[in-house]
Write a structure and sequence with these properties.
single chain, alpha/beta, 12-stranded parallel beta sheet, two-stranded parallel ribbon, 17% strand, globular
């Protein structure tokens, strides 16, 4: 339902016509406009039923981006304790300058605007204060007392990269984190200067994780004070099914194996592992260890090579130490940047496939290439790209789809005739001239 239709409904109410629609219809109207703050505010004023439906979206996300946010949420939970049940996601950024700038330079959006409309003691002008940009959360800000928010399932947490560090053992920090006992979806972004043991002990607060997304950035040159317990954390991850990696430095996630997965007292049942950025999050040995840990349950795997030729030179094919991945169904290799200097890349790809375990249940095999110009396609096959007969008949006997995705800088870079020509080349090279398993896709760079 569009915003226009929803506003028409409110006008219908405003002129005195009946507004006692069935509750199901009211919920449907509200759910179609979850980010339209003006509509949600208006809807909350119609009646108690409309207000209850609107509050679920007005307070669906709690953001802690600066000191004022901790104060504000303390007041909200004290004066309106029932609001805590509406929160589904919590965002904590302990040094997110860009988030504060976004808040100050754009119209009210997301939870910020929802809180502005719902809490009269907090005004949008507060976010425009020149002094606010330096008021990042400090350890003392965690003194806020929150109720147990059992309906919160998502947590987006960004660690600081400042000299102040962070104390994970402080009572106020522990109290804050334990306010969200049912987190299933964790997005964790941290600076490389944060010690690996700290990451692991942070994760030990959450016992119901189903999905984790990691981002590791920066350098490890400085040494701020990050305080954590001396004992080793034992984290039960029996429910963890998906791991995603975004913008991780090469090898920056090996700590996840050493301090988390390796110490889990319960079996690891990871079904999906994905990274699709410039560098692998694991070292070569780390990647092999991850597959060995998850080999019995892994159903979907997406990975790619280091981005730069220099990193490729030192990134050997992982010593998988496995003969088979028995339940793997989808294997994606991306993004492969093709250029006249792609010999190292293609050699890496050949070496990976040569030692990669066989996959008797594999249904889809996907390759994603980035092409700067059409002649780059020749470099894909110039180095004897894969033994296709052995690959498809012996290693992946259940394969149903072989997909090549070609990414371009702009979707108009290749005309229809050129695309057909390149598809013919790839079909011939792979022996898939008349095969219905072959799929070719073109897409702009993402």
């Amino acid at each position: 339902m569009s915003t226009t239709v929803s506003l028409c409904v409110l006008k219908h109410v405003a002129i005195g016509l009946p507004y006692d629609f069935p509750l199901e219809l009211i919920n449907e109207i509200i759910s179609c406009n979850p980010d339209d703050i003006a509509f949600l505010r208006s809807a909350s004023l119609v009646s108690k039923i409309w207000r209850a439906a609107a509050l679920r979206y007005l307070f669906s996300e709690a953001s802690f981006l600066c000191k004022n946010d901790f104060v504000r949420w303390g007041l909200i939970c004290t004066s309106l304790p029932h609001v805590a049940q509406y929160v589904r996601k919590v965002v904590v950024d302990l040094g997110g300058t860009w988030r504060l700038q976004e808040r100050a330079t754009s119209a009210p959006t997301g939870f910020i605007a929802r809180a502005i409309e719902a809490a009269p003691y907090y005004t949008y002008q507060d976010t425009l204060s020149p002094a606010l940009d330096c008021k990042f959360p400090k350890p003392s800000d965690f003194d806020v007392v929150l109720p147990i928010m059992s309906n919160v399932t998502g947590l987006d947490w960004t660690m600081p990269s400042t000299k102040d560090g962070f104390d994970l053992t402080a009572a106020n920090t522990t109290r804050f984190l334990t306010s969200f006992p049912n987190i299933t979806d964790l997005s964790y972004s941290s600076h490389l200067q944060v010690p690996p043991v700290f990451h692991a002990q942070f994760m030990s607060f959450f016992h119901n994780l189903h999905k984790c997304t990691f981002s590791m950035w920066g350098t490890s040159d400085s040494d701020p004070l990050y305080v954590y317990a001396a004992h080793e954390s034992r984290i039960s991850l029996s429910q963890l099914e998906e791991i995603w990696f975004e913008e991780c430095e090469l090898g920056s996630m090996d700590w996840l194996l050493d301090y988390v997965l390796n110490n889990s007292p319960s079996p690891i049942r990871i079904r999906k592992v994905t990274w699709d950025f410039e560098d692998p999050p694991f070292s070569s040995n780390g990647f092999a260890r991850l597959l060995r840990m998850a080999h019995g349950t892994l159903e979907e795997l997406c990975f790619g090579p280091p981005y730069t030729p220099n990193d490729l030179e030192g990134y050997e094919a992982p010593p998988f130490g496995l003969n088979v991945l028995p339940v793997l169904q989808i294997l994606s290799l991306r993004t492969l940047h093709i250029s006249p200097q792609s010999d190292r890349l293609m050699q890496w790809l050949n070496s990976i496939v040569a030692v990669f375990p066989s996959c008797p249940c594999l249904q889809r095999l996907e390759f994603t290439f980035y092409l700067a110009e059409s002649r780059d396609i020749d470099n894909v096959f110039a180095f004897g790209f894969l033994d296709w007969n052995s690959l498809l008949e012996d290693r992946y006997p259940s394969l149903k789809v072989l997909e090549f995705e070609m990414m371009m800088e702009d979707e108009d870079d290749f005309d229809i005739a050129e695309r057909k020509r390149l598809e013919t080349i790839i079909r011939q090279e792979t022996g898939m001239v008349n095969s219905d398993k072959f799929v070719m896709r073109w897409s702009p760079a993402r």
